Amino acid sequence: MKHDILAHRPSDLTIDWAQRVVGNNCPGVIVSNVATVSVDIGTTTRVRLAIEHDGPAAMPRRWFVKLPSLNWRARVITALPGLLHTEVRFYRETAPAIPLAVPGFLAAESKLGRGTTLVLADVTETGATTGKPGDALTPAQAMLVIEQLARFHAFFSDKVALGETYRWLAGPVRRLEDHLGTALAVPLMQRGLRLAGKLVPGAVRRWAVRYARHRRGAMRFLANAPQTLVHHDCHAGNIFWRQSQPGLLDWQLVRFGEGIADVSYFLATALQPEVRRMHEALFLTTYAQALAAHGVTGIEPSSLWQRYRAHLAYPFEAMIVSLAVGGMIEPESNHELIRRVTAAVEDLDAFAAIPI
């Protein structure tokens, strides 16, 4: 019999709860202790646990548990489009095919109106390190991420060939998220810009509000390209490193999209502006070459550059909206990411690349 593992707050993650998780995977294994290592509240409530059990060595003893956010604003923004439910389904149905490192899936429960609980193996147990959203990567690290993104995008490059297996990623939940984003675009953009203050210069502010007012058309333009699977939230805090190789965390926003969108998001958020300016042309060349090496041909450099510019609008919007909502990213990191993405948008006149 399958045991219910739904939890609503960190205090629910008891020995009895952990025993139910283990019972669904390895009957007969006994859990003797559960210790909370850390609790982080953002778009979700993320809890690291140390588990003592008498199971085999292959059964993780460090768990990473995701629950709905205890911050009510973040909870509303993420709950309505069912982002945590999307991540549960990703780990159950899609993660095994992903050609890059992702956390190991242990268990999940998602029930309409009752909540969602996702239990993963904590990547730190196997020697991996994780970072924070405001961390700045080196050019060498960035190159490794670019190469992995190209491999990932190439693997899923033909949306038509994906068939029904991944069609749910473009289903009603994703469309609801897009509708909510459009409906709230102007008030959230205006509030976020007000809170950002001098971090965003006047010219960028005017473009940003215009973009928010025409967001639906902008999204259509950005979606009008060959589709693949994209992470859609590729900042330094969602990257882990194991033996110097990158993997990706936090798949709540996974969807069909244009691969270069992940590259725009990553370069704008994970690098200091001076590093991005110095290396971004090489990064885009490397991305195109890596796609070609994995079978994606016909990429025109000038077109790739223009699409890269246009997709910078989204990481800017994401960071400004995060500030407007509050509680989604630690404030210091949020401010730093706004500084970086504003520099990218300003350097490349990103909003002008979108015909709105």
Tell me what the structure shows:
This protein has 356 residues and is α+β, with helices and mostly antiparallel strands. The chain has 2 domains: 10-122, 2-Layer Sandwich (Phosphorylase Kinase, domain 1); 129-353, Alpha-Beta Complex (Aminoglycoside 3'-phosphotransferase, Chain: A, domain 2), CATH 3.90.1200.10. It has 13 helices and 10 strands. The chain has a 5-stranded antiparallel beta sheet with strand order 1-2-3-5-4. Strands 6-8-9 form a 3-stranded antiparallel beta sheet. A two-stranded antiparallel ribbon has the order 7-10. Strand 2 and strand 3 (62-68) form a beta hairpin. It is globular, with a radius of gyration of 20 Å.
Kindly report the spatial arrangement of strands forming the biggest sheet: 1-2-3-5-4
Class per helix and strand makeup: alpha+beta
- CATH first level of the largest domain: which class? Alpha Beta
Radius of gyration: 20 Å
Number of domains: 2
Task: Specify the CATH architecture of the largest domain.
Answer: Alpha-Beta Complex
Globally, the shape reads globular
Poorly predicted parts: none
How many strand segments? 10
Helix count equals: 13
β-sheet strand percentage: 15-25%
End-to-end Cα distance, whole Å, is: 55 Å
Instruction: Find the CATH topology of the largest domain.
Output: Aminoglycoside 3'-phosphotransferase, Chain: A, domain 2
Task: Estimate the helix proportion, in percent.
Answer: 40-55%
The chain-level mean pLDDT equals 93
